[in-house]
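Most newcomers find our protein records easier to grasp once they have seen one. Sequence and backbone structure share a record, each on its own labelled line. To make this concrete, we reproduce a full record directly below:
***
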Amino acid sequence: MSSHKEKLSILSEMISFAKVNNTIKQAEYDFLFNVAQQLEVSKKEFDSLFNTKVEHIIPKSQAERLVQFHRLVLLMNVDGDNDLEEIKRLHDIGLVMGLPPSAIGQVLSIMHKYPNRIVPPEVIIEIFKAHYN
């Protein structure tokens, strides 16, 4: 698994993404805190990330990048409301992580076909597999 520094970077990126519309709703905070718990980051340290910058570290493996991209898709849809700014930001984050633009676009276009826009992990994996072959 990731180092503690990498875990903080993951959470920091997600917090920054959640702040794209200048507010974090309770559902977004709860989702982020759940991820922090899964990553074994304390509440105190998690809460400090809302006001502290940490070094941005791109996940090393393709699998870790896909997991992070999926987390961001889930975060974007957790409040049931997403706008073009969030979609563009998610697309840009995927590009910075080195994910194929066409696969990112495909995930963003099909998410509307799923209940609550929650794309199952296996669907995301299949989309990216097809773009890497």
Notes: The chain has one domain: 4-132.
